[in-house]
Structure formats: structure tokens, C-alpha cells
Write a structure and sequence with these properties.
Elements (H helix, E strand, L loop, with lengths): L21 H6 L2 H8 L7 H14 L13 H25 L3 H13 L1 H14 L3 H4 L5 H6 L1 E2 L2 E2 H17 L7 H4 L2 H6 L2 H13 L11 H11 L4 H12 L5 H18 L37 E5 H12 L11 H10 L3 E5 L2 E3 L1 H9 L12 E6 L5 H14 L3 E6 L3 E3 L3 H5 L6 E2 L20 E5 L1 H5 L6 E6 L5 E5 L12 E3 L5 H15 L4 E4 L7 H8 L19 H7 L4 H12 L4 E4 L6 H6 L5 E3 L1 H8 L3 H14 L7 E4 L8 H5 L3 H12 L3 E4 L26 H15 L12 E6 L9 E8 L2 E8 L5 E8 L2 E2 L8 E2 L3 H4 L8 E7 L4 E6 H7 L1 E5 L4 E11 L4 H9 L7 H9 L1 H10 L2 H8 L11 H16 L5 H20 L8 H10 L7 H20 L11 H8 L19 H12 L3 H12 L2 H17 L2 H4 L5 H9 L2 H7 L2 E3 L2 E3 L2 H18 L5 H23 ...
Parallel strand pairs: 3-4, 3-18, 4-7, 7-14, 14-15, 15-16, 16-17, 17-18
Antiparallel strand pairs: 1-2, 5-6, 8-13, 9-12, 10-11, 11-12, 19-20, 19-22, 20-21, 21-28, 22-27, 23-24, 25-26, 25-28, 29-30
Helix pairs in contact: 2-3, 3-4, 4-14, 4-15, 5-6, 5-12, 13-14, 22-25, 27-28, 30-31, 36-38, 39-41, 41-43, 41-44, 41-45, 41-49, 43-45, 44-45, 45-48, 49-50, 50-51
Length: 1187
């Protein structure tokens, strides 16, 4: 298909295929420029473009129609656009519909008259003359009667007529109008009538089977998509119809775009648009040859650290000088492992080139080290402790599940390196300087007496950026000029020397070096790997004819594809991958590769992972449609490519993540994508801590005195790292499905990223709105996914229900939890299947839904809950379900247990009953309990007992009770009890736990009394799977009173902790403390008597039961750090005192036995407090000591 038009076929008509009118062709002497450019114009477009743009710009001031200059890169792009048009025209008129131009011309002749039509064509050829007409060899009419390449000249003329008609409509080409303006021609002939009639007729013909558009719609489509950008039009045209175009057009577009970028590099403009990844045929075969992942590779989470800078920061953090890799503290590695980091990329650990350091210091940075990518040799720097220090760090990191990653810089060495001294033949070099103006009179950068090394003088004066430096062999006096490393995108890297990969010896030496690196590092990152892909190595250093310009001076060393393949027969990276697999297995290979080669690197060359810069660039700029298009293109081509990407929000060459994404919701929304997209997530140096300094590769320390942002770290720990620890759900692409977020108006909101993934029975749904707008929509069907091979596509879409593995039974419901908010949601599966998931997404809002479980509703109870929740999230759906069934208990309990009731108790003043009007609400609660359980209780008696208890407690609070207890016990009480004249709110915050403890203890007596039970009623309640906390025995095992045990069971099983916490929160507004105190009430009911049991029991089992209780662990904030379990000191002391206090208020203290019990309780508490304190609040150590 892409051979329907030979390259340069139209050059006989217009020089280099660029459409010019007669005036321009003569004015700029275009044919002479072509002759100057090359004997073969078709191979010299770049040179011709430079000459023509220079001629054009010199005459701008003389041409009223030309208001702006043009650049050679833009002319190249214009030539390319027209050449692509010719391919599309040839495809339509030669392949799809042969003879259609003749038919159309007959129609126009019949409509306008043959004479007029012939005049238009002849006038067009005369005004836009091919060379024979320009040289008066033939007339315009004679030319139209001729043929070239076995095709009619009339057909060629019609092509050019159509192309120029569209060019005049193109807003992006306004500056080029003087080259092809048709105003003079229009004045003499009905040109537009001719074209218009021809277009109208073509519109009645079948559309192109390849573009599904009419001919003119196809030509105008790039203009419609990107009206003001020539570059955008070409990007669209090539991405949209790459499969219809020859590969060399795509290659030459890379070159033209590079020239355009070079020409605008220093003009202060931002980078050009990032293109969506697309996949098509290329010059080199791209068979599927993915490398196999070892079991650990898919779930790697990588953190980048510049070694010297990190050691400087750690020295400040830990208050001691840390110089070697072996000095990195275990605590720091523990922190990384706790966050879920399992791979550590150490940047800059190799021995660096002294010449690099000398250049940087002479240019003004006295503290600079050499660049991390200007290397002397692949040995660990002695500054960092050498090989022994690396092995020590690798061992300690490995114990924590962290693997080390190292750099390998394959395409160059430092200009002063071991190879430069011992193997200069491995470098790309010349016998003479490429430009006569080069001079090398500066300082010698070599530290070896055998060799002199000199960079070009322009670097020292900031006047030039030469492409070579001079190496002088002092034994022979011979000078060679060696190229600096260069990727053709900006200036050469003046502290590096480019390796010559045309030499087998060089390739083998680099492979042996890679194998040496693999023996040190299980993960290797290859720097600028795309420069060694054959197509780009040739483009940069040995360009094919017409492709020169990426690196100055290399045009003279160009070669054709056959000769290049003879010297460089196999892809270097494929050889590397295969050799590493055989000789250093279990090594993860990671390529930094751009230039739309991401898919090629992993799918054909076999790299395990490849950089995905689109992730950072597109999400930063909120170029969301391109980002989604990239994902869609990958899924339609080969989904496995998606799981091979390295996604990142910054890397050492880019601005910090904070600079690009801020610290707010957008940062965390993109971070959610980072850790949930298939592939390998990479965090940058200082990203988690919120550091803002961009560290140079020559930095030995951080220059800004920055402190980690604790708030940012904590939000990572709340919202990001819990997901990181579930990477196994997201790393693969086999179950990945991207969904369209369709708005109520029917269009897809490209700002919303929504996708599902999973592993085994676990599934997750991620949604993020990457825009500062609120939107509503529905998720129902995925985009197309290729379930076949790239060469044999089988595209299908998945429903949301299918992607999440949901049951489609009409009775099925699903519960999922948002990992970030910890809210759970209940959804009806059949509704999701039919109408999808309806959502409202606020600016930069994200949702991380993890499937909790599926269930079937057998009695419509879940349906009632679903209707009640109406899509709202709750802390626990199961809890909400139980609450619904416990409404007759919980509703009156909430009415009673509220902040107003607690304030009423505190303000009591010996007038009537303590609860007063609240007794009615309490009685209603007791009636609810009776109705729910089928038991009967004496509410009046319970209310009297409650009143008695509260009166005693109020006396305690008022300091009216004097105790005859030992002085240490009284001192303990005095040190912890608030003063009786403290502000009421302060008193209530302290006494609310004992108040509710007393209430729950007494209320639960109603279920501890020996009364009749309505067996049928209880059977009905048990049918909803609720545990009824009824204590049938008057006294449970141990010394815990039955009422207290029942009260604890009420709070736990009847979900009363939540209403108590809500009441506490209403008192103070402190939700965390409210929940802690509510749980503490439950703990006191269940375990306050444990402090007495210690007097007669073995301590170990009792304390284990107490401190291994999940509620107690939450209250005491027990946590792991440095492989030890710690308890919060303040919480521990408060809990122990409160348990002692409720023991006190539970005793009448009317007998010596009660007094002795309280003293025993105090002594046990004191022993526990002292032991835990002595162990530094290490709870495991303390329990072992107390056992």
C-alpha cells in the first residue's frame, strides 16, 4: 500500500516536491538552489530548505505579502505534508478507484465546457510550471498530454491543483503564501469554479475505503483537527494514517521535527505537543519478542536517589556524618520498606571522569563533582566506600525486600576514561576537525601523561558548542578528533566521548560491561537507550541520504541502509537482552527510551521495562485526551506493552514533582494513577518528602536547607502507600480495561481516567478527574482491547460488570471500599450491568474502589439497605446492614446517648432525678431492647439504680468522697483527676468515660436478670444473622460481672460504640479522641476486672488477652517500627488510669475487702506502667518481662 507512489516521483514537477508558482520559482531561483544543494534533489530536501528559506527571508522586506520569516524546518514540514497528500491521492486515484480522475475531468468538461476546462488546466501548469515548461522545452498543453512514471501528466497536475487548493485554505501556512499564491491566476481563469465543480463531483463518489472519507475530506482532516499548527497537522496525519504512508515519511518527519525544534530551541518557547503513542510498520521488522518476567519483577516499586545528595541529607537527618553507602541507616531502609518501596535506584555510584569535574569547576561551580553520566570506569567510587560499601547496603536492603538498581551509560564514556587511554579505537573519531574554525588551545583535561585531551575553545568562551574534542597521543604526536556524546536534540555533552557501535569490538566490550554491572545490581537502568537503536544510531551518526542534520558534520559520513546493516547487523539491545538472560538471569533491564520507540523496546528488543514520559508530560499539562488515546492505542495494539512502562511524575532530568504537580489534590490524583497503572511506578528523589530542589548530576550535596513536609508524607501514608502494598493487583495488563466516562449529554469526558484491573478474585476500579472542573457521567463499557496478537487483532470491549468479575444474578450486590477515604459502597450488580456506574467527580477528585465481597439478597434486606444508602459511602456496609436491623434499639439509644444528656448530668444540682427528662428516652431504649430480644425487664428499677450510680459518680466528680487509702494510691488519683472546680467542658471531657461506663453497666443488667425469653422472637432476630448479646449465666467465667460483660457485648455487637463516639465528638469536635474514648468504654466493660485477676492468675495469659485485643491496640496506637512493636506513652498511661478509675467507681469501698482490692489494682497498674516504661514502650518486650 505504501509503495503506490515512489519517493521523489513528483520531483520532476516541483523541485523537491515543494509547490511553487512561477513568480516564486524565478524570484528565488529555485532550480539553481536545487543544483547547489545536490546533484540528486530528492535526497537533499534539508539543504534545499535551508537555501530557499534563506533566500525567502532576505526578500521579506521587499514583499508586501510576506510579513514573517520562515524556517528551513518548517519548509521541510511543508514538503512532507504535500508528499503525504500525494500518497493519499495516489492511494485513492490509483489503487482504490483507478481512472476516477479521468471520469471527474469529463464531468467538469461537460459542466464548464471542455474549452474552459482545458484553459484552466493549461493556465495552472503555466503558472505552476514543471521544469520542462519553465525551460520552454514544451508548452503547458504539450506537458499535459505527456506521461511520466507510466502516469498521465494531467493526473499529476490535478493532484497539485487539489493540494494547492487545500493549502490556500490552511491557516497554518499563511506565512508561506508568497511561494504559491494563486491570486494572479484567479484573475485570469475560473480556477475555483473548476476545483469546486471537481470537488462536488468527487463528493458524490464512494469515500476512501482506507480513510472512510471523501478525497477532499481526507485532505482537509488534518487542517480541521489542528488549524493553526503545521506540526500538529503532520502529527495528526501521521498518527491517524501512518498505516497508509511509507515508513520513510515517518522517519523524515522525525528529522523535520528535530530541525524545527533546533531552530526554536533558544527562543523561549515551551516544548512542542507530546504525541500519543501509535504503532505501525517500520523500516526494521518488529516481531513480538517480549522477555519473560521473573516472579518479582511485575511488582517492583522504584525510588530514585542521587547517592551523594542523599547521604548529605541523611547526615543532617540523623545528626552524624554519613559518607559511605554502608553508612545508610537501617532505620531509613525500614522506612522505605514500610512505604512499600522494594527497589532503590542509586544514581552516581560509579567512578566519574575527573575531566568533567574540571570543566564544571572552571565554569564557576567550585563545589561540583563530575557528572554522574561522565564515567571513568564501572567501579564503585571510593568516595562512597567502594565495592564493600555497596555489598553491605545490598545485603541489608535485601533483608527488607529491597533490591538495588544501578545506571549503565552505554553510548558514551567520560572524555577522560580508562577506555580513552587504553582503547581509543572504540570511540567515534576523525583524522581532521570537521570544521576549520575549530581550535583546541585550552587546558589539558587528561591526568595521564600518555594522552592529552582538549575541548574546543568555544566552550570556554560560551561562543560555540563543538561536536568534537581533540585527543593527542603524546608518544606519537598524532591528533584525533573524537565526537562528544550527542542525541541530536540540543548541544553535545561536552564532558563525554561517543562510542562507535559500528565496531563489533566496541559492542562486545559494552556488553561485557553490562554483564559486570548485572552482577552487582539486579536492576539496570540504561541511559538514553534509544540512541543505540539501529534506526536512530544511523540517523544520528551515519544518516541515510537526505536524512542528515541531526548532528552537524555527519552528512559526509552517511550510508545507505544496506551498508549500515552490513556493519551493524543486529539490534544491539536484542543482543544485550539475550546475553543477559543467558549469563546474568534474574536481572531486570530498564530502558530510558523516547522518540516513539517505547513499544519497540519492550515488544521487539525485549527490554523488561521502558520509560513512559507521556505519563508525566500529558498529565502535567492535562493533555488528557492524548493520554487516554495513548492507552487506547496500546490496548488495541498489544496490551502487554502497557505493563512494561515505567511511569513517573519526575525523574532526575526533569523538574521536581512538586514543581510540576503541586502538593494538593492534583498531585495525589496523579500519584494514584502512578501506583495503580500497569507497569513500574517510579518515585523521584525527594518526591515523597515534598522537596523542591532540582539536583544536578554534579551535586555533592543539597544546596537548599529543606525539611521534609510531614503533612505530605502523612498523606502519602494514608492514601498512597496502602495502595502501593497492593501493587500485585495493578502491575499486569491482562485484566486491565479502560472506560469512557460518558456525560449525560452523550459525549466522553476525556479528563476522567477510569479503569479496572485485578488478580485472582481481587478486583479494583480507579477513577480520577484530571481537571479543575466538576463533571458527571457514567461508566459502562470499556474501550477496545486486543485479545489476539498485534498482527492478528481480536478487538472486544468489556462491560464494567465483566471487568470487575461481578455476579449478574438479579439478586446480586457488590460491596467495594474506597481505599483512600476508607468508605464502603453498596451497588446492585444488575443495575451496574444495565445502566453502569453513575458518578459525580469534582476537580482533581479520585476514587480507589477495591472489591470487598459479593452477596445475594435472599429476603430483600440488602435491597432495602441499597435504597436507604442511595449511593452514599459508609464506614462499613456490613455495619450499616446491622444498624438497619438494629434500628429499634439504636434509634432510641441515639436519642438518649447524646452530648446534651451528658451536659445535663454534669450540671445536675440535687433537684429531682439526675437524668430528669432523659429518663423517658432511656425507658424508650429499654423498651426497644425488650422488643428486640423478647425479654422483659423492670425499667423502673433500672432507672432507680442508674440514678443512684450517677449520684455517687457526681460526688466523685465533686471531690465529696474521702477515701481511706494508702498515700501512693491517693497521690496517683490526685495526679490524674481534674480539679473539681475545673471548667465544665474540661470536666466532661474527662468524666464522660466513667459516666457512660456506669450507664452501660447498669443498663445491661436488664439482660442479666433471670427473666423469660420469647423464643420465637429471638428466633426471628437470629434469622438476620445478628448476635444477641444476652448473658444467660448470672456470672460469666472469671471475675467480670455479668452486666459488664453484657454491656461490652452490646457495644460491640449492637454497634453502640458509634453512637457513643458521635456523642463524644459533639462535646469536643475531636473525632479521633471521641472514637478512642468510646472504644475505651467498651474496653473497660470487658477488661477492667483483669487488673484484679492479676492477683490470682498467671499474668501472661491475662495481659495477652488484654493487649492483643484489636480495640485495645487501636486505642494504644500499637505500631511496628524497626521490627519492634511500640505503644504510645500518653495513650497507655491514660488507658491504665481510666481502667483503675472505673474499678474505683465500681466499688462501694464499704469494706476492707473492697479497699484491699483497690490497692491490689493500683499495685498491678503501677507494675505494668513501670515495666512498659523501662522497656522504652516496646510492648512485646514489656509483655515478655511481665509474663
Amino acid at each position: 500500500m505504501n509503495k503506490v507512489l515512489k519517493r521523489g516521483e513528483n520531483d520532476f514537477y516541483f523541485p523537491c516536491g515543494l509547490s511553487l508558482n512561477m513568480d516564486a520559482r524565478v524570484l528565488y531561483d529555485a532550480d539553481a538552489l536545487v543544483a547547489r544543494a545536490s546533484v540528486d534533489p530528492a535526497a537533499s530536501r534539508m539543504q534545499y530548505a535551508r537555501l530557499l528559506s534563506d533566500a525567502f527571508n532576505k526578500r521579506v522586506s521587499d514583499d508586501a505579502k510576506a510579513t514573517e520569516t520562515i524556517r528551513s524546518g518548517e519548509l521541510l514540514a511543508l514538503m512532507l505534508l504535500h508528499e503525504a497528500y500525494r500518497h493519499l491521492l495516489a492511494l485513492y486515484t490509483r489503487i482504490s478507484f483507478p481512472g476516477i480522475l479521468g471520469q471527474g475531468l469529463s464531468h467538469v468538461c461537460a459542466t464548464l465546457g471542455k474549452k474552459k476546462a482545458d484553459e484552466v488546466l493549461a493556465s495552472f501548469v503555466a503558472y505552476y510550471p514543471p521544469r520542462p515548461v519553465l525551460e520552454n522545452t514544451v508548452s503547458a498543453r504539450q506537458f499535459l498530454d505527456g506521461t511520466s512514471n507510466d502516469h498521465s501528466h494531467t493526473d499529476y497536475a490535478l493532484w497539485e491543483l487539489f493540494i494547492l487548493r487545500v493549502a490556500h485554505e490552511n491557516p497554518a501556512l499563511k506565512r508561506f503564501l508568497p511561494l504559491y499564491d494563486d491570486t494572479a491566476l484567479q484573475a485570469k481563469t475560473p480556477l475555483y469554479c473548476f476545483v469546486g465543480e471537481f470537488e462536488s463531483w468527487l463528493n458524490t463518489q464512494p469515500p476512501s475505503p482506507h480513510t472512510q472519507q471523501t478525497l477532499f475530506e481526507t485532505l482537509r482532516e488534518p487542517i480541521r483537527r489542528c488549524p493553526d499548527s503545521l506540526e500538529g497537522q503532520l502529527e495528526y496525519l501521521i498518527n491517524r494514517w501512518r498505516h497508509l504512508l511509507p515508513a520513510d515519511i515517518v522517519e523524515r518527519w522525525f528529522i523535520a521535527r528535530g530541525v524545527m525544534q533546533e531552530e526554536t530551541f533558544f527562543r523561549g518557547w515551551g516544548p512542542g505537543p507530546v504525541s500519543a503513542y501509535s504503532f505501525s510498520e517500520a523500516d526494521y521488522a518488529e516481531p513480538e519478542a517480549f522477555s519473560r518476567d521473573e516472579d518479582w519483577m511485575p511488582n517492583v516499586v522504584l525510588l530514585a536517589k542521587l547517592a551523594y545528595v542523599w547521604l548529605d541529607q541523611l547526615s543532617k537527618k540523623y545528626g552524624r556524618h554519613l559518607a559511605f553507602l554502608s553508612d545508610i541507616p537501617d532505620a531509613e531502609l525500614d522506612q522505605l520498606a514500610h512505604w512499600g518501596i522494594n527497589a532503590l535506584w542509586l544514581i552516581g555510584v560509579w567512578e566519574r571522569s575527573s575531566a568533567s569535574q574540571e570543566i564544571k569547576r572552571r565554569m564557576g561551580n567550585a563545589e561540583a563533582a563530575a557528572s554522574a553520566y561522565s564515567l571513568y570506569d564501572y567501579s564503585i567510587s571510593e568516595d562512597l566506600g567502594g565495592e564493600a560499601a555497596l555489598q553491605d547496603l545490598a545485603h541489608r536492603a535485601g533483608l527488607r525486600g529491597i533490591r538495588l538498581a544501578g545506571d549503565m551509560v552505554p553510548n558514551h564514556m567520560g572524555i577522560y576514561s580508562k577506555w580513552m587511554i587504553e582503547h581509543p579505537e572504540r570511540f567515534l573519531q576523525l583524522e581532521q576537525p570537521p570544521f576549520p574554525a575549530y581550535h583546541f588551545d585550552g587546558p589539558d583535561l587528561s591526568q595521564d601523561d600518555r594522552v592529552g585531551l582538549f575541548i574546543e575553545d568555544g566552550y570556554w568562551t560560551h561562543k560555540d558548542a563543538a561536536v568534537v574534542f581533540r585527543r593527542t597521543d603524546r608518544r606519537t604526536g598524532k591528533n584525533t578528533y573524537i565526537y562528544h556524546g550527542n542525541d541530536g536534540t540540543s548541544m553535545p555533552w561536552n564532558d563525554t566521548a561517543q562510542l562507535n557501535f559500528m565496531l563489533q569490538d566496541t559492542r562486545e566490550a559494552v556488553i561485557q560491561t553490562i554483564l559486570q554491572v548485572a552482577r552487582r545490581f539486579p536492576i539496570i537502568r540504561f541511559d538514553a537507550a534509544m540512541t543505540l537503536a539501529k534506526r536512530h544510531y544511523q540517523r544520528l551518526w551515519f544518516p541515510k541520504p537526505g536524512d542528515a542534520g541531526a548532528i552537524p558534520s555527519r552528512a559526509a559520513f552517511g550510508m545507505d541502509r544496506i551498508e549500515f546493516d552490513r556493519m551493524f547487523p543486529n539490534e544491539f539491545w536484542r543482543e544485550v537482552v539475550d546475553r543477559v538472560a543467558r549469563e546474568a538471569p534474574n536481572t531486570l533491564l530498564l530502558a530510558e527510551a523516547f522518540w516513539l520507540m517505547e513499544g519497540y523496546f519492550v515488544r521487539t528488543l525485549g527490554m523488561h521495562r521502558v520509560y513512559n514520559s507521556a505519563f508525566m508530560n500529558m498529565l502535567k499539562m492535562e493533555d488528557n485526551s492524548k493520554f487516554r488515546q495513548t492507552i487506547k492505542n496500546v490496548l488495541e495494539f498489544s496490551p502487554e506493552v502497557l505493563q512494561r512502562f515505567v511511569n513517573f511524575m519526575n525523574n532526575p532530568d526533569e523538574d521536581t514533582a512538586i514543581a510540576q504537580f503541586g502538593k494538593g489534590d492534583k498531585y495525589f490524583g496523579v500519584s494514584v494513577l502512578l501506583v495503580t497503572m500497569p507497569g513500574l511506578p517510579m518515585f523521584g528523589h525527594g518526591q515523597i518528602e515534598g522537596l523542591t530542589e532540582k539536583y544536578g548530576m554534579e551535586y555533592r550535596r543539597a544546596y537548599r536547607d529543606e525539611q521534609p513536609d510531614s503533612g505530605l508524607i502523612h498523606r502519602h501514608e494514608r492514601e498512597i502507600f496502602p495502595i502501593v502494598r497492593k501493587r500485585y493487583l495493578f502491575s499486569g495488563a491482562e485484566r486491565f480495561a479502560l472506560f469512557d466516562f460518558t456525560t449525560p449529554e452523550g459525549w466522553v469526558d476525556e479528563n476522567v481516567m477510569a479503569y479496572a484491573n485485578g488478580r485472582g478474585e481481587e478486583h479494583a476500579l480507579i477513577i480520577y478527574n484530571n481537571a479543575y472542573t466538576t463533571t458527571k457521567g457514567v461508566l459502562h463499557t470499556s474501550t477496545a482491547i486486543n485479545e489476539g496478537r498485534a498482527e492478528e487483532k481480536v478487538l472486544r470491549r468489556r462491560s464494567l460488570v465483566e471487568a470487575l468479575g461481578l455476579d449478574t444474578d438479579p439478586r446480586a450486590y457488590v460491596i467495594w471500599r474506597d481505599e483512600c477515604t476508607q468508605l464502603e459502597y453498596l451497588h446492585h450488580c444488575e443495575s451496574l450491568m444495565k445502566t453502569g456506574l453513575h458518578l459525580e467527580m469534582h476537580a482533581y477528585e479520585f476514587k480507589t474502589f477495591f472489591l470487598v465481597r459479593q452477596l445475594r439478597d435472599l429476603d430483600n434486606s440488602w435491597g432495602r439497605l441499597h435504597g436507604k444508602l442511595a449511593g452514599a459511602g459508609v464506614s462499613s456496609v456490613q455495619e450499616a446492614y446491622l444498624e438497619m436491623h438494629l434500628e429499634e434499639i439504636l434509634d432510641p439509644f441515639r436519642e438518649f446517648m447524646c452530648s446534651d444528656m451528658l451536659r445535663h448530668v454534669l450540671s445536675y444540682s440535687d433537684d429531682g432525678r439526675v437524668l430528669g427528662p432523659w429518663e423517658d428516652k432511656l425507658a424508650a431504649f429499654l423498651r426497644g431492647v425488650n422488643a428486640f430480644t423478647g425479654k422483659k425487664s423492670d425499667a423502673a428499677a433500672i432507672l432507680r439504680h442508674v440514678d443512684d450510680d450517677l449520684r455517687v459518680l457526681l460526688k466523685w466528680m465533686g471531690g465529696e468522697i474521702r477515701l481511706c487509702l494508702p498515700e501512693p494510691v491517693l497521690a496517683y488519683l490526685a495526679a490524674n483527676l481534674p480539679e473539681a472546680d475545673s471548667p465544665p467542658e474540661q470536666l466532661l471531657l474527662f468524666w464522660r468515660v466513667p459516666i457512660v461506663f456506669c450507664l452501660m453497666r447498669r443498663l445491661a443488667e436488664s439482660m442479666s436478670m433471670d427473666t423469660e425469653v420469647d423464643d420465637q422472637k429471638m428466633a426471628d432476630k437470629e434469622s438476620v444473622s445478628l448476635t444477641s448479646p444476652i448473658v444467660d449465666e448470672p456470672n460469666p467465667p472469671g471475675r467480670i460481672p455479668a452486666a459488664e460483660q453484657t454491656g461490652h457485648q452490646w457495644m460491640r455487637d449492637w454497634l453502640m460504640i458509634k453512637p457513643v463516639a458521635e456523642a463524644f465528638k459533639a462535646l469536643s469536635g475531636d473525632e479521633w479522641r471521641a472514637w478512642q474514648d468510646a472504644r475505651l468504654v467498651s474496653i473497660c466493660l470487658a477488661h477492667r476486672a483483669d487488673l484484679l485477676e492479676l492477683d490470682v492468675q498467671i499474668w501472661g495469659p491475662v495481659l495477652f488477652s488484654l493487649f492483643e485485643n484489636p480495640e485495645m491496640q487501636a486505642i494504644l496506637m500499637i505500631h511496628w517500627y524497626s521490627q519492634r512493636r511500640w505503644v504510645n506513652k500518653e495513650q497507655f498511661e491514660r488507658v491504665m488510669f481510666m481502667m483503675f478509675l472505673v474499678n474505683l467507681v465500681s466499688m462501694r469501698l464499704e469494706s476492707a475487702t473492697d479497699s484491699d482490692s483497690l490497692v491490689t489494682c493500683y499495685e498491678n497498674v503501677r507494675e505494668i506502667l513501670l515495666t512498659v516504661s523501662d522497656t522504652g514502650y516496646d510492648i512485646n518486650w514489656a509483655l515478655s518481662a511481665l509474663n
